[in-house]
Design a protein that fits this description.
The structure holds two protein chains of two kinds. Chain A starts with 34 loop residues before the first helix and ends with a helix. Chain A has helices at 35-44, 48-74, 99-111, 119-137, 144-164, 181-207, 212-226, 230-239, 241-244, 253-278, 282-290, 295-325, 337-345, 355-388. Chain A contains 14 helices and no strands. By secondary structure, chain B is an alpha/beta fold. Helices cover 39% and strands 24% of the residues of chain B. In chain B, the strands form two sheets. Chain B has a six-stranded mixed β-sheet, sandwiched between helices. Chain B has a four-stranded antiparallel β-sheet with strand order 2-1-4-5, covered by helices on one side. Chain B is globular and about 55 Å long. The mean pLDDT of chain B is 90. The chains are: A mainly alpha, B alpha/beta. The A-B interface holds A 281, 283-284, 286-294, 297, 301-302, 305-306, 309, 389-391 and B 57, 60, 62, 81, 85-86, 88-89, 91-93, 95, 97, 99-103, 112-113, 116-117, 145, 147-148, 161-162, 165.
């Protein structure tokens, strides 16, 4: 390679500097720091500790993964119409998951005892919910303001009419005692999600209010609800709510649980939103007020858009927690997804040694898929926000 | 270059009478009396903590005060929130930290208040905003977000944003203090141009060259009080008060 060109001193006799006239040629990095081998060395075997850790984890995987795969796939039963298919025999001493059981009871696990002829209404509800969720989650979707109105106003009303029934439209009433399965889990989670954000925002603003009475009320509500377990709130809602209300007005069991879940999730959401509000610098309020924007305009146009955007990952995290917490409604006698699996696995038609395991694994998979999807979404938003800092 | 003398008019732009303010026990503003004539340009200076910013923030009621009166364009500030909003509409304010809205583009920053507060149609608001962005010499940045701009550019957007509301008075709260040195000039040039157009201005700044060039009157504050009010020429050449002399000797060296 050529030596860098040296420029002769320019000013009368005194050498001021040696200046490079051509850029230095790029040199490829030492081979030990790139490539597959280097990656392994750096990430897995960089020290004794990390080497030990690698070995332990590999052993754990060797011990657990093959037996799981054996149970879920290799030894699993895929076809059959009753328990006979899933019993061990001479030919097949090792029996894995009994998938025909899930297939057979899938309708029950999805709709509970909802009348078969009316299940199209539930399907319509699922479709409308999926549409609304997609509209709201896709940040670059057109007219997300209409999407928000659809999700927070139209959808709840339409869902109630579809699922519960609405006589003027010729939709027969279906008693909530017949509701069950995935449908109930989604209804409970959706009610929690849809109410908790607006109510949480109001509570968070109330807690930061300059009016002492409002502040006290909101703080008391948030702290009391956050200070007790969800199951307590549910018991209170299902046992104590009827005591406060006149007999003729007595809300049904599911309604009581929904109120409990909504109150509970709102209190948590209030704290999440409050953290977001606190991240907005005071200068934003100053600038908005100095321009003559009113309190409500400042909130709607300046503060909330910024506060909620930075809070999206945390909001989604509380939705994940809420989705899993819905299983607790089972304790106040509501047939949610988990409870229908509980009921289905006790069915003598499918009584085998692997039925329970199959049911629970299926439940775990379903919860995992929902929660992991939410978590990935929050993750993507977080990355996007980090990139957006510089815009 | 020096900007011509202020035109005289009967109702002053701002009248501050016997203003007192306390932060808890701390007396931040003590018996402030000041009248700002229409078209007048006043530069307020003084050591940090002397209450200069607080005084500005009282005038558009970003800060409450306990005693005295402030009359803006003939409207006296009261607790009435509608009156406060009406006063704020007439005063443009530029902050040390720019305080642009980061979730809105430069153009949206400028059109938000005219549309929401003045009820101006969107098309008209955008045309006006572009005119003011041209005046602060950054029309090509209209589609960008504030964080994509340099500090000097952001501050010029903040000036354009305030101008879009057609304020009768512009207040500047140390507009160049948060800027890198090479960006100070572009912001000061914008402010000088504004002064040449006859805008009434209240400026808190330590840029004394700017003050000499633009101010009709200099106000020196210390410890929450107005110590000295004087024409710029005599203020710099022949300060009356010991504390003014001390302050000037510190910042002019």
């Amino acid at each position: 390679m050529d030596a860098p060109t040296v420029v002769a001193p320019t000013m009368k006799g005194t050498a001021l500097a040696y200046v490079r006239t051509a850029p230095a040629a790029a040199i490829s990095p030492p081979t030990a720091t790139v490539g597959v081998l280097a990656w392994f060395r750096e990430r897995l075997f960089s020290s004794i500790g990390s080497t030990l850790m690698t070995i332990v984890i590999v052993l754990l995987l060797i011990w657990s993964v093959p037996s799981l795969i054996d149970f879920l796939i290799v030894n699993a039963t895929w076809t059959g119409s009753d328990r006979e298919a899933c019993l061990p025999s001479q030919v097949r001493p090792e029996v894995g998951a009994c998938w025909p059981f899930i297939g057979d009871r899938l309708a029950y696990i999805t709709y509970g005892s909802y009348p078969i002829a009316l299940r199209w209404r539930v399907d319509t509800f699922f479709a409308m919910l999926t549409f609304g969720t997609a509209w709201l989650l896709w940040l670059d979707a057109p007219r997300r303001d209409i999407g928000a109105i659809y999700f927070f106003v139209v959808l709840p009303v339409a869902s109630f009419m579809l699922l519960h029934g609405f006589a003027p439209l010729g939709l027969a009433i279906v008693d909530t005692a017949l509701w069950g399965g995935m449908m109930v889990t989604i209804v409970v989670a959706a009610v929690g999600i849809v109410t908790s954000l607006p109510v949480g925002i109001v509570l968070a603003l109330g807690r930061r209010s300059e009016m002492p009475a409002v502040r006290l009320l909101c703080t008391l509500f948030i702290e009391i609800v956050r200070g007790v377990p969800l199951i307590t709130v549910l018991f209170m809602a299902s046992v104590m709510l009827p005591l406060f209300l006149p007999d003729t007005w007595s809300p049904d069991k599911l309604m009581r649980a929904l109120v409990g879940v909504a109150l509970f999730s709102s209190a948590y959401m209030a704290e999440v939103v409050r953290a977001g509000l606190q991240s907005i610098p005071k200068g934003q309020y100053d600038a908005a007020h100095a321009l003559g924007l009113s309190y409500l305009q400042t909130l709607r146009l300046i503060i909330l858009p910024q506060a909620l955007t930075v809070t999206i990952p945390n909001i989604v995290n509380s939705y994940i927690a809420l989705f899993k917490d819905t299983t607790l409604v089972f304790f106040v006698g509501i047939f949610d997804f988990l409870k229908t699996i509980e009921a289905a696995r006790a069915d003598p038609k499918w009584a085998t040694s692997v039925t329970s395991a199959t049911g629970y694994i299926f439940a775990a998979l379903v919860y995992f898929v929902f929660c992991y999807a939410m978590s990935r979404y929050a993750n993507r938003i977080e990355k996007r926000l980090a990139a957006g800092e510089n815009r | 270059m020096s900007v011509s003398a202020a035109p005289i008019s009967d109702t002053p732009a701002v009248e501050i009478i016997g203003l007192h303010k306390w932060f808890g026990e701390f007396h931040v503003l003590a018996d402030i009396n000041l009248e700002v004539g229409r078209g007048e340009r006043i530069v307020i200076c003084g050591p940090s903590g002397s209450g200069k910013s607080t005084l500005l923030r009282c005038i558009n009621r970003l800060e409450d005060f306990q005693r005295g009166a402030i009359v803006v364009d003939g409207m006296q500030l009261t607790q009435d929130i509608r009156r406060i909003d009406a006063v704020r509409r007439e005063i443009g304010m530029v902050f040390q930290q720019f305080n642009l809205f980061p979730h809105l583009t430069v153009l949206e920053n400028c059109t938000l208040a005219p549309i929401q507060v003045r009820g101006m149609p969107k098309g008209e608001a955008e045309q006006r905003a572009m005119r003011f962005l041209e005046r602060v010499k950054i029309p090509e940045q209209a589609g960008k977000y504030p964080n994509q701009l340099s500090g000097g550019q952001q501050q010029r957007v903040a000036i354009a944003r305030a101008l879009c509301m057609s304020p009768k008075l512009m207040m500047f709260d140390e507009p160049t203090s948060a800027l890198d040195p090479e960006m100070v000039k572009e912001v000061l040039d914008t402010m000088v141009a504004l002064a040449l157009d006859g805008m009434t201005m209240l400026v808190v700044t330590h840029e004394m060259t700017f003050a000499r060039q633009v101010a009709n009157r200099m106000v020196f504050m210390d410890a929450g009080q107005i110590i000295e009010v004087n024409a710029p020429a005599s203020f710099f050449a022949n300060p009356q008060h010991e504390r003014t002399k001390l302050f000037l000797s510190q910042i002019l060296n």
